[in-house]
């Protein structure tokens, strides 16, 4: 990245690292309250719109089913609405057009009605199922048409809306700005354009202000309570754009991107459009979801159960470590960097002769270090030395699966030399991780580890964690050494 680009689009993490002289306990969501207030409001608006649409469908379906004498109208309506919700029929849209959504809505409602008929009347006739499908389609069309009309009216007449900025100052950004101003029914309140080009100056595009982006992007977004950010070919190179996307996601700012070759891009079902400009919505990062919180609490419960179940193993290892060197402590404690660059004290069974605090914090340990004894090699080969980190998981410092934590000295070094290294700290560190089970541990490439860790974060799912845990068990059984 050029010096001018760094100066203009300084969008890397701006939060200071706490001193490394004390332990910091933290939870999975450490965004300050001052940053959470506008995001809570946006989340509440999304939930209200979702529930309003869902409730309207349920009421209209129940009424229409009753009028047309469908058996068990309330139950039928409830099942159909639940299936439609699972099919994504209540996903919010910028452009509210019944004709745009009608093909997918017709298919989803028909399949939902047939499934409902199969559940409620398994011995019913094909004619009865077809009748329910026709009634469902009619009810959903009536409900959606009414809901869209009300929402368009509210978007036009009521002040406010999703506070929106366009990042980019080129022709596409200006076309998009004009389209947003001309379509108030989109629900976007355009605050301005952020021009990150080297020679950007304060100007206006009609009624829309153009502001040079000279400072930290996240600071601007939070100061102006921005709900939605649209990237329209910013001047910055791709690496800086990736940082911008992560900064927006960090404060739960909704993100849209104008695709490359947008004039030739078809608007498919998972895209939006404002006027003639297609927009690709970036899904909220998986680690910001409710399921991620479930993962963290499941990890704590599982770790507590493992501590109890493995108590005899802990005792045996502790005795063996103590007998191997009675002058040294059984547990090895070391400062490591975790979520949001916070420092915590990691626990391990001691596997090598004690070093000075400075040497322990600043020297890289290799597999054939002479200070590692015979017992230490066994513990490292089987990863049994990591077992005390179950307590770190219970305490909230770590989780079972995540990027492996590193020492503050090396984190400072890697921040400056390894691209996207700081992005690893978006989530809590783990006892095992995607990089570790792929052989990237010990004296291996930090760049490769970073890529694998960020891949895990971007593609996280519950099954991904199960996969990593199963691969970890296989690796331990095979006695893969460090």
What's a concise summary of this model?
This protein is of the alpha/beta class. The protein folds into 3 domains: 3-30 and 159-283, Rossmann fold; 38-157, no CATH class; 290-477, no CATH class.
Q: Would you mind describing this structure in some detail?
A:
By secondary structure, this protein is of the alpha/beta class. It has three domains: 3-30 and 159-283, Rossmann fold (3-Layer(aba) Sandwich), CATH 3.40.50.720; 38-157, no CATH class; 290-477, no CATH class. Helices cover 50% and strands 13% of the residues. The protein has 17 helices and twelve strands. It has helices at 3-8, 33-67, 73-86, 98-120, 126-157, 171-182, 217-223, 238-250, 290-309, 311-324, 357-362, 374-381, 389-395, 408-417, 434-437, 446-458, 462-477, and strands spanning 162-167, 188-195, 203-205, 208-212, 228-231, 254-257, 271-274, 277-282, 331-337, 343-349, 398-401, 429-432. Helix 14 links the parallel strand 11 (398-401) and strand 12. The longest helix has 35 residues, at 33-67.
Estimated share of beta-strand residues: 5-15%
Our Rg estimate from Cα atoms comes to 27 Å
Strand order, largest beta sheet: 3-4-2-1-5-6-8-7
Helix content: 40-55%
Helix/strand class: alpha/beta
Count of individual helical segments: 17
Membrane topology: Multi-pass membrane protein
InterPro entries: Bact_transf, EPS_sugar_tfrase, NAD(P)-bd_dom_sf
Keywords: Membrane, Transferase, Transmembrane, Transmembrane helix
Region (Disordered): 11-30
